[in-house]
Design a protein that fits this description.
310 residues, alpha/beta, Glutaredoxin, five-stranded mixed β-sheet, two-stranded antiparallel ribbon, 9 helices, globular, disordered N terminus, oxidoreductase, Thioredoxin-like_sf, Glutathione_peroxidase
């Protein structure tokens, strides 16, 4: 079997340079005509070099390049498998309490969550009027408010007409300073957005979400409904918690910039008494974005940066 390696342009150039180096220079006054033996010897060396190069494994640089592509492919495959095996909902831990074991301050009075959402059960305690509750921690001057609050109103308008769905917004001093009083916050939300006019849209008084002074309801809510990373405490404004109005238990938690209208399928499922569907494709991606924002965003919740622990 014969073997005839092909020479590419770079190899031909190297061979030509090799011959020229071996041949005497034309500028040499004592130049001697190269003998047939010298030329054949040079050509033989070149041929042997080319044949050896064709038979050896790829160079170290090519091996490194191949290895890097292999690493990229392996990493992509790993990410794909992680995405497939990732939980479709945030981690909901078992609890012996429900939202109805807690109260929230509204207009200066401490009200049971039963009264806050206007929940009504039949005599047997089975059929509940309120089927789904969405709890949101808000900041009225946060840029996200301009997008989220109108969409929250849209949800209330569509699903809260029969009292089956309620949105509870809780302003806070934490996550950047909130200069307005609770009463003024309610007035601004009503005048600028119309939020709070519909009975299914509730605005509580300001509460602490984190630290030693955290409100018991929020401490329970964050502890039972955790982020995909297992984090309990909120990282920023407008994190959203969907709860089953029948049981009073949390079902799913949504990151700061997950749009309220993207929760429609989950709300419809809860109202209909069906299991909530798998989270949308952007759910995990928004959680990753929220984790990055938690390290640099102006409105992040960080001890020492704003009113955090009091």
């Amino acid at each position: 079997m014969s073997f005839s390696p092909k020479l590419n342009g770079r190899t031909r150039d190297a061979a030509r340079e090799f011959v020229l180096q071996k041949m005497p220079s034309s500028s040499d006054d004592n130049m001697e005509t190269p003998s047939r033996r010298n030329i054949l010897s040079s050509i033989g060396l070149i041929g042997a070099s080319v044949l050896f190069s064709a038979m050896i494994p790829p160079t170290a640089s090519l091996a490194a390049e191949t290895e890097s592509f292999a690493e990229i492919a392996a990493r992509a495959n790993k990410i794909s498998k992680e995405m497939e095996s990732a939980p479709s909902i945030s981690e909901v831990r078992k609890t012996d309490k429900t939202m109805y074991d807690f109260s929230l301050p509204v207009e200066g009075a401490d009200k049971s969550l039963l009264d806050v959402v206007r929940q009504q059960f039949d005599d047997a305690g089975n059929n509940a009027k309120v089927k789904a509750v969405l709890v949101v921690n808000i900041k009225q001057d946060d840029p996200v408010a301009r997008k989220d609050i109108p969409e929250l109103i849209s949800l209330v308008t569509k699903y809260g007409r029969n009292g089956e769905f309620v949105v509870v917004c809780c302003p806070t001093e934490q996550g950047y300073f909130e200069p307005d009083t609770s009463t003024l916050i309610r007035l601004k939300l009503a005048s600028e957005y119309g939020y709070g006019i519909n009975p299914a849209s509730v605005v509580t008084d300001k509460v602490n979400l984190l630290g030693t002074g955290a409100h018991p309801f929020w401490r329970w809510l964050e502890g039972t409904s955790r982020s995909p990373a297992g984090l309990g405490r909120v990282q920023g404004n407008f994190e959203k918690f969907l709860l089953d109005g029948r049981t009073g238990l949390p079902l799913r938690r949504y990151p700061r910039k997950y749009m309220p209208l993207d929760i429609r399928d989950d709300i419809e499922a809860v109202i209909a008494g069906r299991p909530i569907p798998p989270a949308g494709a952007n759910w995990a991606e928004e959680w990753r974005g929220a984790a990055a924002e938690a390290e640099r965003d102006t409105y992040r919740f960080e001890k020492g940066l704003n009113v955090f622990d009091q």
